[in-house]
Amino acid sequence: MDITNLSNTEDSFIARLELEPDENRVHPEHCKAHKDKIPLIGRNPGEQIRIEIPTANGTNGAIYTLSRFFLNDEGRLILGNRIKDLHNCQPSANACDAVVKGKIMLEGLDDPSDAETLGEFIEQASPNIQNNKLIVIAPHGGEIEPWTDVEAEFVTKSFSSVGAALWMCKGFSSEGNEDAYERWHITSTEINPESFPKLKTIIGQNLKFDYSVAFHGWKEDFICVGGNPENQDASLISDIRDAIGDILKERDPSIAVNIAPCSGNFNGDDPKNIVNRLGTNSVQIEQCKKARRLHYEAIAEAVVNVLGTRLNTGIHSTKIREI
Q: Is the pTM of this model over 0.70?
């Protein structure tokens, strides 16, 4: 597939990229632009934008969140320091000039296989929302936080009879690199529906789902289950923790399963977290790579077992498949 055939047609502007290594000045996932440039691409501060960086092999796309602080120089764009190989940018007139666009995904690119081939990013969602009982999400699927999208799909398919909704994104690394996370990851509290058309449609159709579940990956060596501490279903988080823990005790007791508070800011308790914006009762599951790689299906089945009793579906996974 020729990536040039998928170019966005919306307005854009060219800016000279600069890195800010101090995270106190610019968050790693944020960028600063001139205030008069932002309206050109139809975006506002706090929304996500796409930056296309020229490299020796073509162009690498990346997603950043627009800072609420602005630059005085129209020709500059300051990036947070998260893309480690930005020095590979091919300079023009001794500067790294990139194209800045308002649409974060390429037009016409929907197939995960094509996105993987191109090292790109796509958004996927249920084609229509049948009710507001359950939504399952994986904002960082593909190679960003591997296997989280597979888990979300498994749970959603298990509740297809009640019309469970699915929303997820898949991001892939550029050829020969492992850069999906640094190019495509957006913190869950900052995911803006204005930048994700399918998410915006879901939010527009439903005030809130009864239950929302988010699958995530992290660098710790254990699993932590968090979510909204004010869930009406007060035992939901602990029940999911216990269900996952019981399964892993038999399969891999070396993986601990804890309940929030988790390490750092991974508790899933922020009202701005997308899982809490979507659900009245919400759960966020942070998983170590070993758990996702070896036990993703067992973890997903544990979630199905707990939710099945809540949704009064009679759905219960009685068989955990062998690895």
A: yes
